[in-house]
Amino acid sequence: MAEHSHIATLDSDLASRLPAYSQTLFEAKTTGNLTFEQIAKDLGRSEVAVAALFYGQAQASAEDVEKLSALLRIPKETLELSMLGFPNRGNSGPMPPVEPLIYRLYEIVQNYGYSFKAIINEKFGDGIMSAIAFSSKVEKEVDKDGVA
């Protein structure tokens, strides 16, 4: 179990914008009192990648489906029919975002997007970075004053 007891659940305002399997996954996650970190360890993926699977923003592999089925006690056939298809990315929320944390991430792109683009172009030439083959990690950072 994680050091905390906060379990992310599906926001009812988002449910209608997500694939039908999202609700099934979130219900099983909540029933099992599992964090994305715990599920990620079982799947051998990052917690952000696992959350993206739950929100329908990433494509699951057959191995992901097998492991999710066993861990969450959802029939494999239920997940295979929907999760192995192509995800419909980018339509899970309004633009610009209204949820404060999501808006702050959007704000980062607004403020630093062209800076990232310029540096990527200098280092790698003309092109784009992949948001699909993207990895990230969430950790708490403490500033010089000890504030997290």
Briefly say what this structure is:
The chain has about 150 residues and is mostly helical. The protein has helices at about 10-15, 20-30, 35-45, 45-55, 60-70, 75-85, 100-125.
How would you characterize the overall build of this protein?
The chain has 148 residues and is mainly alpha-helical. It is built from 7 helices and no strands. It has helices at residues 12-15, 20-31, 36-43, 47-54, 62-72, 76-83, 100-124. Helix 5 runs antiparallel to helix 6. It starts with 11 loop residues before the first helix and ends in a 24-residue tail after the last helix.
Features:
148 residues; mainly alpha; 7 helices; globular
Average pLDDT rating: 89
Instruction: Characterize the largest beta sheet: strand count, sense, and whether it forms a barrel.
Output: none
The helix content is 40-55%
**Percent of residues in beta strands:** under 5%
Low-confidence stretches: none
Order of helices and strands: HHHHHHH
- What is the number of strand segments? 0
**Gyration radius, in Å:** 17 Å
Number of helices: 7
Span from first to last CA?
Answer: 22 Å
Note the overall shape.
Answer: globular
The quaternary state of the protein chains shown equals: single chain
Which class do the helix and strand fractions yield?
mainly alpha
